[in-house]
Amino acid sequence: MSAVTQAKPLFKTVRRHNAEGGQGWAALLFLAPTLLGFAAFYIYPSVRGVWLSFTDWNLLSEPEFVGLGNYAELAGDPLFWRSLLLTGYNTVLNLAGQLSLALLVAALMHRLTKSVVLRATLLLPWLVPNVATALLWLWLLDANLGFVNQLLDAMGLPTHGFFNSPGEAMPSIAAVTTWASVGYVALLLYAGMLQIPEQVYEAAAMDGAGEVRTFFRITLPLLRPVLALVLVVSVIGCFQIFDTIAVTTKGGPINATKVIYYYIYQEAFTHFRMGYAAAMALTLVLIMGALTYLQMRLMRASNSDLG
Amino acid sequence: MSRYFVTAAVGLLALTAACGGGDTKAGPITLNYVMWADNQVPAYKQCADAFTKKNPTISIKMSSVAWEQYWQNLTTQVVSGTAPDVFRDSVAYYPQFAKNNQLLDISELATRDKVDLGQYQKGLVDIWVRDGKRYGLPLDWDTIGVFYNKDQVKKAGLDPAGFANWTWNPQDGGTFEKAIAALTVDDKGRKGTDPGFDKEHVAVYGFAPDYSAPALGQTSWAGFAVSNGFKYLDKNPFGSKYFYDDPKLAETVSWFAGLSKKGYAPPYDKQSALGGDALLQSGKAAMVVSGSWMAKAYLDSKTLPLAAAPLPAGPQGRKTPINGVSDAIYAGTKHKEEAWQWVKFVGSAECQDLVAATTEVLPAITTSSDKALAAHEAAGRDVTAFVDEAKAADGTFLLPVTDNADKINELMNTAISSVLLGTTDAKSALSTANTGVNALFQ
User: Fold this and answer.
1) In the CATH hierarchy, which fold is given to the domain comprising B146-322+404-439?
2) Is the interface score ipTM higher than 0.85?
3) What is the pLDDT of residue B143?
4) Which helix (H) or strand (E) is B390 found in, with range?
5) Is domain A75-299 classified as CATH 3.40.190.10?
């Protein structure tokens, strides 16, 4: 902390220094590659996306301006609203699963064992590419030939359709993504826990607080900035779910897993309705921006309770 | 500073110039040729070699892209101006490409070069014509039949000789359903026809229907529905009014839904994500309905004793969809004449005889097709079921070719899935879908 407060005035004098004022050009030169990339791969596609959302481009013919037509259709498209709801449903399922499990795992790592091997093992599923994870679970959870159903059957339990049953498809997908990312989230939370000073725990122990009370009264509140970060990252990650669905259910059965990203993709590349897809994508950007802003405000993410 | 900029700019210019190249007018050219079936690449490679031998200045660069990505790939290539000169075309997607002027009309070239349109299997030539413009020559044909596991048929005490005459109707399923029931076995070894058959614990399903063939039903309900009197649309190709609300179709789809309710077929929500093929391969299903294109793979199987039978005859007789592919020329190609020479060659008996010898597909030219059948026979494969179906008078029908195929597919998928799941009855689900389908043409 103190290092930062000392550094501040120092920094200001550097900026005022006359001899180095002329280095702006050099800075620009060094920044140029990145700026160029940013302009070519982010700014240009975004601007073009905005333009496309006002057209009826089908990829094969020249786009024609249709004004707000796409947005009007969007507002009255039940599938669009349903896909947003489904995305929300998936996010809630994932957050509940990921955060509770990850907190548990992180707390165990923090208070019980410091084994590096164990920590590395927890991260393994996250290191596997999403498509491989999805394929693995597609086979394991197959309704007729999958290992899980054979196991259930052997134990005399009813078998499940998992990805093929409209009611079970979304929870199955959420379970797979939770399995894949819980180790990573746990590691982030664990890193956050390590920042909490040991004295606080000692003081709590001295006052006779038990493990559970310590967790809820000390660990959780002091973890808030990290939790906020994890929440923001997870929500964005959950909204972006695509690969798992593209591999396992392809939005089915009967649109039960047609989340917003998959819907956008289908409109763009199955039905070749680029304009409509762009309009949906832009609407999603607005929603995501608002959600992130709200989260950051609510969680006061930029300041910590650790004085 | 500016000195550096100039050097950089010159360097960049030099680079782009080097990349740009420029058209070489005379001299050898290369045609890019793309298809989706990678098992057919070696067969058509033989054609390409023969073609280059005759036309030394033209070489063919072949590649394949899996069906799942094929049309997305092609569409983005068209947008970025890198589309292949010639590509394999399907009835499901060509209307859209033709409508957007991305395909070269070959009708004048075909007349100029006197291509004999009568040499092809009947019906296959005209599906590639839209508004008087021709977009391809037929390459192959396929019909639909039943593949069954001989061991399981024997165990069920059925005589496969009778399969040539089996019947079907949407009420009790005819002798076809009787065979399905006899082939179904529960985990205690009871057959579907036995008293006390436990439909909740089925070890072997008599039949694994293809649940993912929504709008056309090619490897699923198509042959059954049409044999029951169903007609897809007012005019084919390029009609604009579908009849998916026909009760004849509703009856057929209900019969399929009934099979899984009786335990003879996997329930829709407990189907294998890997499809009926995986069930057949693992011995968990005794029969599938599939196309003649699977004949080589299935009948050559070392692990499974499989054989082919025709579709059952329905109330209106035996009906199978007949379908095929063609090669299209990209309208933006720089080598129109050369591309046409290649397309003409692929559609000629010379190439189709080469393809026939590989037995990967049944070529569209009837004389070549006969050679493929002889090659099948020489290899010990009995594919007469598919051929007899195609030869029978009034035994085949064409799948619908219209605009909006992708949207129709989606609407019909929702409708048929909900019937198979039992959440909606066939009649109302299909009439709702049909209203949506016909609204696309307004």
Assistant:
1) D-Maltodextrin-Binding Protein; domain 2 (3.40.190)
2) no
3) 92
4) helix B384-391
5) no
